[in-house]
Amino acid sequence: MSRKSFKKIVKEGVCDTFIVWKDEFRKVIRDAGVVIFFIVAPLGYPLLYCFIYDNEVAKEAPMVVVDNSGTVRSREFIRLCDATRDIRIVGRTANMEEAKRMLHEKKAFGVMMIPSDFSKKIVRDEKSYVILYSDMSSLLYYKAFLTTLTDVSLEMGEDIQVKRMVGSTEREQKVASTPIEYKNVTYFNPQNGFASFLIPAVLILIIQQTMLMGIALLNGSARDNNTFRDLLPMQRHYRGTFRIVFGKSLCYLMVYSVVSVYLLWCVPMIFSLPQMGDGYSILAFILPFLLSCVFFSLTIVGFVRDRESSFVLFIFMSLILLFASGVSWPAAAVPWYWKSFSYLFPSTFGIQGFIKMNTMGATLNEVRLEYVALWIQTFLYFVGACLVCRWQIIRSDRKYREMNR
Q: Can you give the pTM of this predicted structure?
Protein backbone atom coordinates (compact mmCIF):
# COMPACT_ATOMS: atom_id res chain seq x y z
CA MET A 1 0.00 0.00 0.00
CA SER A 2 1.41 3.34 -1.07
CA ARG A 3 1.63 6.31 1.24
CA LYS A 4 -0.88 8.22 -0.87
CA SER A 5 -3.48 5.47 -0.72
CA PHE A 6 -2.92 5.12 3.05
CA LYS A 7 -3.59 8.82 3.54
CA LYS A 8 -6.71 8.51 1.43
CA ILE A 9 -8.02 5.64 3.56
CA VAL A 10 -7.30 7.53 6.79
CA LYS A 11 -8.97 10.68 5.46
CA GLU A 12 -11.98 8.71 4.31
CA GLY A 13 -12.20 6.96 7.68
CA VAL A 14 -12.07 10.25 9.60
CA CYS A 15 -14.74 11.78 7.34
CA ASP A 16 -17.01 8.75 7.72
CA THR A 17 -16.51 8.77 11.49
CA PHE A 18 -17.54 12.42 11.56
CA ILE A 19 -20.63 11.63 9.44
CA VAL A 20 -21.62 8.82 11.82
CA TRP A 21 -21.10 11.16 14.77
CA LYS A 22 -23.23 13.86 13.10
CA ASP A 23 -26.02 11.41 12.26
CA GLU A 24 -26.03 9.99 15.78
CA PHE A 25 -26.05 13.44 17.37
CA ARG A 26 -28.96 14.42 15.13
CA LYS A 27 -30.87 11.34 16.30
CA VAL A 28 -30.17 12.20 19.94
CA ILE A 29 -31.52 15.73 19.79
CA ARG A 30 -34.54 14.75 17.68
CA ASP A 31 -35.70 11.90 19.94
CA ALA A 32 -37.60 13.26 22.95
CA GLY A 33 -37.17 10.03 24.91
CA VAL A 34 -33.40 10.05 24.42
CA VAL A 35 -33.20 13.73 25.41
CA ILE A 36 -35.08 12.87 28.62
CA PHE A 37 -32.56 10.14 29.51
CA PHE A 38 -29.43 11.96 28.32
CA ILE A 39 -30.24 15.46 29.61
CA VAL A 40 -33.40 15.79 31.72
CA ALA A 41 -32.93 12.73 33.94
CA PRO A 42 -29.27 13.47 34.83
CA LEU A 43 -30.25 17.07 35.59
CA GLY A 44 -33.33 16.23 37.64
CA TYR A 45 -32.64 12.95 39.44
CA PRO A 46 -29.68 14.20 41.52
CA LEU A 47 -31.64 17.25 42.66
CA LEU A 48 -34.57 15.02 43.65
CA TYR A 49 -32.38 12.64 45.65
CA CYS A 50 -30.41 15.43 47.31
CA PHE A 51 -33.51 17.38 48.32
CA ILE A 52 -35.04 14.23 49.82
CA TYR A 53 -31.93 13.45 51.88
CA ASP A 54 -30.92 17.07 52.46
CA ASN A 55 -31.38 16.79 56.25
CA GLU A 56 -28.67 14.07 56.26
CA VAL A 57 -29.93 12.47 59.52
CA ALA A 58 -33.32 11.75 61.05
CA LYS A 59 -34.02 14.47 63.61
CA GLU A 60 -36.90 14.82 66.07
CA ALA A 61 -37.99 11.21 65.61
CA PRO A 62 -41.48 10.91 67.17
CA MET A 63 -41.63 8.64 70.22
CA VAL A 64 -44.34 7.80 72.73
CA VAL A 65 -43.59 6.98 76.39
CA VAL A 66 -45.16 4.45 78.73
CA ASP A 67 -43.94 5.49 82.19
CA ASN A 68 -44.93 2.76 84.66
CA SER A 69 -42.55 4.15 87.29
CA GLY A 70 -43.84 7.71 87.55
CA THR A 71 -40.90 8.81 89.69
CA VAL A 72 -38.53 11.76 89.62
CA ARG A 73 -35.79 9.68 88.00
CA SER A 74 -38.04 8.31 85.27
CA ARG A 75 -39.30 11.81 84.44
CA GLU A 76 -35.70 13.04 84.36
CA PHE A 77 -34.78 10.25 81.94
CA ILE A 78 -37.70 11.21 79.68
CA ARG A 79 -36.77 14.90 79.86
CA LEU A 80 -33.14 14.21 78.89
CA CYS A 81 -34.26 12.13 75.90
CA ASP A 82 -36.70 14.80 74.77
CA ALA A 83 -33.96 17.45 75.04
CA THR A 84 -31.80 15.75 72.40
CA ARG A 85 -31.99 16.63 68.70
CA ASP A 86 -32.84 13.06 67.65
CA ILE A 87 -35.98 12.32 69.71
CA ARG A 88 -39.24 14.20 70.20
CA ILE A 89 -41.66 12.87 72.80
CA VAL A 90 -45.10 13.20 71.21
CA GLY A 91 -47.17 11.67 73.98
CA ARG A 92 -47.40 9.67 77.19
CA THR A 93 -49.80 6.75 77.46
CA ALA A 94 -51.06 4.71 80.38
CA ASN A 95 -50.36 1.29 78.83
CA MET A 96 -48.76 -0.44 75.87
CA GLU A 97 -52.03 -0.90 74.00
CA GLU A 98 -52.44 2.86 73.59
CA ALA A 99 -48.81 3.17 72.53
CA LYS A 100 -49.25 0.43 69.92
CA ARG A 101 -52.29 2.25 68.57
CA MET A 102 -50.19 5.40 68.07
CA LEU A 103 -47.59 3.32 66.21
CA HIS A 104 -50.24 1.84 63.92
CA GLU A 105 -51.59 5.32 63.20
CA LYS A 106 -48.02 6.52 62.41
CA LYS A 107 -48.24 9.21 65.09
CA ALA A 108 -45.05 7.76 66.56
CA PHE A 109 -42.35 5.38 65.34
CA GLY A 110 -41.00 4.23 68.69
CA VAL A 111 -42.14 3.35 72.20
CA MET A 112 -40.06 3.83 75.34
CA MET A 113 -41.38 1.75 78.23
CA ILE A 114 -40.01 2.45 81.72
CA PRO A 115 -40.76 -0.43 84.14
CA SER A 116 -42.35 0.17 87.53
CA ASP A 117 -39.20 -0.83 89.44
CA PHE A 118 -36.94 1.58 87.50
CA SER A 119 -36.13 3.88 90.46
CA LYS A 120 -36.22 1.10 93.08
CA LYS A 121 -33.44 -0.83 91.38
CA ILE A 122 -31.31 2.30 91.12
CA VAL A 123 -31.75 2.97 94.84
CA ARG A 124 -30.85 -0.66 95.65
CA ASP A 125 -27.72 -0.30 93.50
CA GLU A 126 -29.03 -2.78 90.95
CA LYS A 127 -29.09 -2.63 87.19
CA SER A 128 -32.26 -1.01 85.83
CA TYR A 129 -33.67 -1.26 82.34
CA VAL A 130 -35.50 0.92 79.85
CA ILE A 131 -37.26 -1.01 77.07
CA LEU A 132 -37.34 0.29 73.48
CA TYR A 133 -39.84 -0.76 70.84
CA SER A 134 -39.27 0.60 67.35
CA ASP A 135 -41.09 0.56 64.04
CA MET A 136 -38.47 -1.11 61.82
CA SER A 137 -39.98 0.29 58.62
CA SER A 138 -37.55 3.18 59.12
CA LEU A 139 -34.05 2.16 60.19
CA LEU A 140 -32.97 5.80 60.54
CA TYR A 141 -35.57 6.30 63.28
CA TYR A 142 -34.39 3.12 65.00
CA LYS A 143 -30.82 4.38 64.92
CA ALA A 144 -31.91 7.71 66.43
CA PHE A 145 -33.86 5.99 69.21
CA LEU A 146 -31.14 3.50 70.10
CA THR A 147 -28.30 6.03 70.04
CA THR A 148 -30.19 8.57 72.17
CA LEU A 149 -31.37 6.10 74.80
CA THR A 150 -27.87 4.64 75.07
CA ASP A 151 -26.22 8.06 75.48
CA VAL A 152 -28.79 9.25 78.03
CA SER A 153 -28.52 6.05 80.09
CA LEU A 154 -24.70 6.35 80.17
CA GLU A 155 -24.91 10.01 81.16
CA MET A 156 -27.43 9.34 83.92
CA GLY A 157 -25.39 6.37 85.16
CA GLU A 158 -22.30 8.57 85.48
CA ASP A 159 -24.23 11.20 87.44
CA ILE A 160 -25.65 8.59 89.83
CA GLN A 161 -22.20 7.10 90.40
CA VAL A 162 -20.63 10.49 91.08
CA LYS A 163 -23.35 11.50 93.59
CA ARG A 164 -22.71 8.35 95.60
CA MET A 165 -18.99 9.12 95.98
CA VAL A 166 -19.31 11.34 99.03
CA GLY A 167 -16.07 12.96 100.18
CA SER A 168 -14.10 12.08 97.04
CA THR A 169 -12.18 14.58 94.99
CA GLU A 170 -13.23 15.76 91.57
CA ARG A 171 -10.39 13.80 90.01
CA GLU A 172 -11.48 10.58 91.75
CA GLN A 173 -15.07 11.12 90.63
CA LYS A 174 -13.99 11.62 87.04
CA VAL A 175 -11.80 8.50 87.04
CA ALA A 176 -14.52 6.39 88.67
CA SER A 177 -17.30 7.56 86.32
CA THR A 178 -15.15 7.45 83.16
CA PRO A 179 -12.17 5.16 83.72
CA ILE A 180 -11.43 5.06 79.98
CA GLU A 181 -12.10 8.17 77.94
CA TYR A 182 -13.24 7.62 74.41
CA LYS A 183 -13.83 9.91 71.50
CA ASN A 184 -16.01 9.08 68.52
CA VAL A 185 -14.53 10.46 65.30
CA THR A 186 -16.47 9.88 62.06
CA TYR A 187 -14.06 9.85 59.14
CA PHE A 188 -15.08 11.28 55.76
CA ASN A 189 -18.69 11.86 56.91
CA PRO A 190 -18.61 14.29 59.84
CA GLN A 191 -22.39 14.72 59.90
CA ASN A 192 -22.84 10.95 59.95
CA GLY A 193 -25.46 11.65 57.30
CA PHE A 194 -27.27 9.48 54.81
CA ALA A 195 -26.80 11.72 51.78
CA SER A 196 -23.03 12.11 52.20
CA PHE A 197 -22.36 8.40 51.73
CA LEU A 198 -25.20 7.39 49.39
CA ILE A 199 -25.54 10.25 46.88
CA PRO A 200 -22.02 9.86 45.33
CA ALA A 201 -22.82 6.23 44.52
CA VAL A 202 -26.20 7.21 43.07
CA LEU A 203 -24.56 9.85 40.86
CA ILE A 204 -22.23 7.29 39.28
CA LEU A 205 -25.10 4.84 38.80
CA ILE A 206 -27.21 7.56 37.14
CA ILE A 207 -24.49 8.05 34.51
CA GLN A 208 -24.39 4.38 33.58
CA GLN A 209 -28.14 3.70 33.67
CA THR A 210 -29.31 6.81 31.83
CA MET A 211 -26.67 6.28 29.15
CA LEU A 212 -27.65 2.63 28.79
CA MET A 213 -31.38 3.35 28.50
CA GLY A 214 -30.86 6.30 26.15
CA ILE A 215 -28.71 4.26 23.76
CA ALA A 216 -31.24 1.42 24.04
CA LEU A 217 -33.98 3.81 22.93
CA LEU A 218 -31.88 4.90 19.95
CA ASN A 219 -31.27 1.32 18.89
CA GLY A 220 -34.92 0.41 19.41
CA SER A 221 -35.92 3.32 17.18
CA ALA A 222 -33.36 2.24 14.56
CA ARG A 223 -34.97 -1.20 14.40
CA ASP A 224 -38.50 0.24 14.28
CA ASN A 225 -37.62 2.65 11.44
CA ASN A 226 -35.72 0.07 9.40
CA THR A 227 -37.59 -2.19 7.01
CA PHE A 228 -35.43 -5.17 7.92
CA ARG A 229 -35.30 -4.25 11.63
CA ASP A 230 -31.53 -3.77 11.45
CA LEU A 231 -29.54 -1.30 13.49
CA LEU A 232 -27.61 0.06 10.51
CA PRO A 233 -28.97 1.89 7.46
CA MET A 234 -27.58 0.80 4.11
CA GLN A 235 -25.23 3.74 3.58
CA ARG A 236 -21.55 3.87 2.69
CA HIS A 237 -20.36 5.35 5.99
CA TYR A 238 -22.19 2.59 7.86
CA ARG A 239 -20.02 -0.12 6.31
CA GLY A 240 -16.91 0.25 8.49
CA THR A 241 -16.95 -1.35 11.95
CA PHE A 242 -14.48 1.00 13.60
CA ARG A 243 -16.01 4.06 11.93
CA ILE A 244 -19.43 3.22 13.34
CA VAL A 245 -18.19 2.39 16.83
CA PHE A 246 -15.91 5.43 17.05
CA GLY A 247 -18.51 7.78 15.57
CA LYS A 248 -21.28 6.72 17.94
CA SER A 249 -18.94 6.57 20.93
CA LEU A 250 -17.69 10.08 20.25
CA CYS A 251 -21.26 11.39 20.25
CA TYR A 252 -22.17 9.77 23.58
CA LEU A 253 -18.83 10.67 25.14
CA MET A 254 -19.24 14.34 24.26
CA VAL A 255 -22.75 14.48 25.77
CA TYR A 256 -21.79 12.69 28.98
CA SER A 257 -18.57 14.62 29.46
CA VAL A 258 -20.72 17.68 30.14
CA VAL A 259 -23.27 15.69 32.13
CA SER A 260 -20.53 14.15 34.30
CA VAL A 261 -19.12 17.56 35.22
CA TYR A 262 -22.56 18.60 36.42
CA LEU A 263 -23.24 15.36 38.29
CA LEU A 264 -19.87 14.78 39.91
CA TRP A 265 -18.75 18.36 40.60
CA CYS A 266 -21.69 20.78 40.57
CA VAL A 267 -24.22 18.67 42.49
CA PRO A 268 -21.88 17.83 45.42
CA MET A 269 -20.86 21.49 45.57
CA ILE A 270 -24.48 22.74 45.57
CA PHE A 271 -25.50 20.43 48.43
CA SER A 272 -22.21 20.66 50.37
CA LEU A 273 -21.39 16.97 50.02
CA PRO A 274 -17.83 15.88 50.88
CA GLN A 275 -15.34 16.74 48.10
CA MET A 276 -11.79 15.90 49.12
CA GLY A 277 -10.32 14.57 45.89
CA ASP A 278 -8.08 16.25 43.35
CA GLY A 279 -10.09 17.36 40.31
CA TYR A 280 -7.54 16.28 37.70
CA SER A 281 -7.16 12.84 39.29
CA ILE A 282 -10.92 12.36 39.36
CA LEU A 283 -11.09 13.45 35.72
CA ALA A 284 -8.47 10.86 34.81
CA PHE A 285 -10.47 8.21 36.67
CA ILE A 286 -13.82 9.14 35.13
CA LEU A 287 -12.46 8.89 31.55
CA PRO A 288 -12.18 5.06 31.51
CA PHE A 289 -15.48 4.85 33.38
CA LEU A 290 -17.28 6.82 30.66
CA LEU A 291 -15.57 4.84 27.90
CA SER A 292 -16.45 1.53 29.53
CA CYS A 293 -20.08 2.69 29.95
CA VAL A 294 -20.27 3.70 26.27
CA PHE A 295 -18.85 0.43 24.94
CA PHE A 296 -20.82 -1.60 27.50
CA SER A 297 -24.03 0.07 26.31
CA LEU A 298 -23.19 -0.47 22.63
CA THR A 299 -22.54 -4.15 23.38
CA ILE A 300 -25.72 -4.74 25.37
CA VAL A 301 -28.19 -2.76 23.28
CA GLY A 302 -27.25 -4.67 20.15
CA PHE A 303 -29.69 -7.28 21.46
CA VAL A 304 -32.50 -4.84 22.26
CA ARG A 305 -35.44 -5.55 19.96
CA ASP A 306 -37.65 -2.52 20.64
CA ARG A 307 -37.76 0.73 22.61
CA GLU A 308 -39.84 -0.57 25.49
CA SER A 309 -37.92 -3.73 26.43
CA SER A 310 -35.00 -1.74 27.89
CA PHE A 311 -37.14 -0.24 30.65
CA VAL A 312 -38.16 -3.62 32.04
CA LEU A 313 -34.64 -4.89 32.64
CA PHE A 314 -32.35 -1.89 33.03
CA ILE A 315 -34.44 0.07 35.57
CA PHE A 316 -34.96 -3.10 37.59
CA MET A 317 -31.20 -3.67 37.69
CA SER A 318 -30.44 -0.25 39.20
CA LEU A 319 -31.30 -1.21 42.77
CA ILE A 320 -29.41 -4.52 42.52
CA LEU A 321 -26.29 -2.76 41.24
CA LEU A 322 -26.47 -0.19 44.05
CA PHE A 323 -26.57 -2.90 46.72
CA ALA A 324 -23.94 -5.06 44.98
CA SER A 325 -21.53 -2.12 44.72
CA GLY A 326 -20.75 -2.44 48.44
CA VAL A 327 -21.94 1.04 49.47
CA SER A 328 -25.47 0.77 50.83
CA TRP A 329 -24.72 -2.81 51.94
CA PRO A 330 -21.24 -3.91 53.16
CA ALA A 331 -19.24 -5.55 50.39
CA ALA A 332 -18.07 -8.27 52.79
CA ALA A 333 -21.71 -9.27 53.36
CA VAL A 334 -22.54 -9.55 49.63
CA PRO A 335 -22.60 -13.20 48.44
CA TRP A 336 -19.76 -14.12 46.12
CA TYR A 337 -22.03 -14.84 43.14
CA TRP A 338 -23.67 -11.38 43.35
CA LYS A 339 -20.26 -9.80 43.78
CA SER A 340 -18.96 -11.63 40.71
CA PHE A 341 -22.05 -10.57 38.77
CA SER A 342 -21.53 -6.92 39.75
CA TYR A 343 -18.01 -6.96 38.28
CA LEU A 344 -19.56 -7.14 34.81
CA PHE A 345 -20.84 -3.57 35.18
CA PRO A 346 -18.65 -0.44 35.08
CA SER A 347 -20.72 1.13 37.87
CA THR A 348 -19.27 -1.24 40.48
CA PHE A 349 -15.67 -0.12 40.02
CA GLY A 350 -16.78 3.43 39.21
CA ILE A 351 -18.69 3.79 42.49
CA GLN A 352 -15.92 2.32 44.61
CA GLY A 353 -13.19 4.39 42.99
CA PHE A 354 -15.13 7.66 42.90
CA ILE A 355 -16.12 7.43 46.57
CA LYS A 356 -12.54 6.69 47.59
CA MET A 357 -11.21 9.65 45.60
CA ASN A 358 -13.95 12.25 46.03
CA THR A 359 -15.18 11.46 49.56
CA MET A 360 -12.07 9.96 51.16
CA GLY A 361 -9.37 11.93 49.33
CA ALA A 362 -7.58 8.94 47.80
CA THR A 363 -5.08 9.44 44.99
CA LEU A 364 -5.23 7.77 41.60
CA ASN A 365 -2.50 5.39 42.68
CA GLU A 366 -4.57 4.32 45.70
CA VAL A 367 -7.48 3.30 43.46
CA ARG A 368 -5.21 1.43 41.06
CA LEU A 369 -7.38 -1.71 41.24
CA GLU A 370 -10.57 0.08 40.20
CA TYR A 371 -8.73 2.18 37.62
CA VAL A 372 -7.12 -0.80 35.91
CA ALA A 373 -10.39 -2.77 36.08
CA LEU A 374 -12.20 0.04 34.23
CA TRP A 375 -9.58 0.08 31.47
CA ILE A 376 -9.88 -3.70 31.15
CA GLN A 377 -13.66 -3.34 30.87
CA THR A 378 -13.16 -0.59 28.30
CA PHE A 379 -11.06 -2.91 26.13
CA LEU A 380 -13.34 -5.94 26.53
CA TYR A 381 -16.55 -4.03 25.85
CA PHE A 382 -14.92 -2.23 22.92
CA VAL A 383 -14.24 -5.63 21.39
CA GLY A 384 -17.82 -6.63 22.21
CA ALA A 385 -19.20 -3.46 20.60
CA CYS A 386 -17.13 -4.08 17.46
CA LEU A 387 -18.34 -7.69 17.25
CA VAL A 388 -21.97 -6.64 17.63
CA CYS A 389 -21.49 -3.92 15.01
CA ARG A 390 -19.74 -6.32 12.62
CA TRP A 391 -22.54 -8.84 13.05
CA GLN A 392 -25.05 -6.12 12.16
CA ILE A 393 -23.07 -5.14 9.05
CA ILE A 394 -22.91 -8.77 7.82
CA ARG A 395 -26.61 -9.22 8.54
CA SER A 396 -27.54 -6.02 6.69
CA ASP A 397 -25.36 -6.95 3.69
CA ARG A 398 -26.94 -10.40 3.50
CA LYS A 399 -30.46 -8.98 3.54
CA TYR A 400 -29.51 -6.34 0.99
CA ARG A 401 -28.22 -9.00 -1.41
CA GLU A 402 -31.35 -11.10 -0.91
CA MET A 403 -33.51 -8.06 -1.67
CA ASN A 404 -31.69 -7.33 -4.96
CA ARG A 405 -31.75 -10.84 -6.35
A: 0.82
